[in-house]
């Protein structure tokens, strides 16, 4: 009985992939009871067996918070994920030394939604209405959204290093597919969980649920976001923080509180797809008019009503006086809009970037690009009051275009609930006052008064990436090219030089990435490597438009150096590049001129004019390149698989500004999870149909392999029951004639027999 109870609990707490193992345990329990149990034990175990088997087959997900006061309403089930206060998740805790890891379950429901919906009631005139469940106020402008659990940002995933994260993502959108990428997590043991469509997985179709399961092994500040289309720009993103145990936290003595994160998003007032189509096929722009901080912001003041100003709420960060507070910035932007961040009357100490710790550096401001993360510490040593935290957009959000900016409030404990007195405008404070700046726009190591990324020093020890000579060196140049890209400039119809609305094509080494029709990681048997391309296998791409699966292959555990070259034509842009599955050392960065050629950079390298700073080079997974300059990065290719490398500006990556690294050979890859979704083109030639048949045995069906295994084990359980059930029934009849004490009265005997027979019928 103890064995069976254990099996029941094991089954109830297991995922579908372990159901077959559960059923085997149960069938063995049944066989054991037949051999060793008394008559009463056999009856009891038979009844328990039916219940346990149904638990095994029910696919229920038991989450660690179901027994705790975690849900906001009484319906504690997955369908109410949008009513959960995810900030109270038990995995969001103070990490302790030698504490065993937890398994952390989340439910993400993806759906199209609306900003300033009826859920917002009288927001902003009744300020509390702006914080009602399901109210997404944004900047007060009505527009469609794509969000998780009717929140923006979506649920925060805050765990400790080593925890297992389990997220059930259900696509509730009407027609669009989706995935979730866990930006900053390397997925070393679970590469199929990276969330990159057609690289690590098939897109999640409407109505489907995909379970992401991975160990949070990369500590630090990260975030999650959609990796399909422009959904990140429509609101599908959220914070992710992986904290370390105190003895492993190199920064622990530098701060008193670690409570605040800032998710920055550039914000438009139309869907990302609509903006993309208008820009690439018409005369629409690609400039975001506004910014949001943690989903809040102001754009224009709404009409005053009954003496109440129509001011939208801003993000507020409550702090204690005379303390050191750690802030975590996550840049979830999707357009070309670097952000300058500063705090009135305070300096900041930058201590980490992209989850990797740095020697602390004092600054007045920092600049962050799409996909980057920075941690900084603010010492609250000013008078008790409210202070503006300022966010100023650059490039496409800069003085020449939309002048997008936003503010949040640093509120000391004891300060009134009101805005700071200082004025707010794009030009405040003056840009020239930002002379102590980190990661400045279009600056490299050539500018001594500015700290560019290579000037920062990692706290992590040197490794093979900066102590070994590279096994591979790839020069990757890029820009916007005047080409007849068939997607936007159909030659002889509306070619690039035939129309007024010209759109340049951003490419890496003059190649546009074309994704395959199936995931490279999970369906390797379909790969035709001759279809792969790179700069060494194709010709004529400098003038012609080339598109193909752009793949660079390297050996496992090799050291790879990338020299990224921004040619600087035809206009100023900064492209932040993100590498999946790895991080890298940033060893050089410089702006040479307003524009530069690949040959200029190669010549400078041959002549020894590109100085690589190897000692304690900072570690990142997202980095920018100065316009008309270069950035040099190095990484150890120690994570086998196919990994995307791409510009993190969505309008650029969606038109092919990316490539894939193949690291190692297919036999080095982790095994594909059982029953993992598959997809591909369907183009039979000639079209054929199976012959009609009246027999159900002859029908062609496509079955999930995991279902077949469960059905097979299911038969084993049935067979086991069939073998020992007659014995139980005969002994029950005998017991009824002698008034068997265990069974009680004749009515009880009859009820027991009916129950047994009913369970058998149901089973």
Automatic annotation (TrEMBL):
Bias-annotated ranges (Polar residues): 691-703
InterPro entries for the chain: Cu-oxidase-like_N (IPR011707), Cu-oxidase_2nd (IPR001117), Cu-oxidase_C (IPR011706), Cu-oxidase_fam (IPR045087), Cu_oxidase_Cu_BS (IPR002355), Cupredoxin (IPR008972)
Name under which the protein is recorded: Uncharacterized protein
PANTHER family registered for this protein in UniProt: FI03373P-RELATED (PTHR11709:SF394), MULTI-COPPER OXIDASE (PTHR11709)
Signal peptide: 1-19
UniProt keyword annotation of Kinase present: no
Species name: Trichomalopsis sarcophagae
GO biological process, one term: iron ion transport
Domain of life the protein comes from: Eukaryota
Record domain Plastocyanin-like: where: 135-245, 259-415, 538-665
One cellular component (GO) term of this entry: plasma membrane
CDD domains the record matches: CuRO_1_tcLCC2_insect_like, CuRO_2_tcLCC_insect_like, CuRO_3_tcLLC2_insect_like
Record field: transmembrane: 740-762
Keywords in alphabetical order: Copper, Membrane, Metal-binding, Oxidoreductase, Signal, Transmembrane, Transmembrane helix
GO molecular function, one term: oxidoreductase activity
Similarity-based family: Belongs to the multicopper oxidase family.
Region Disordered: start-end pairs: 683-707
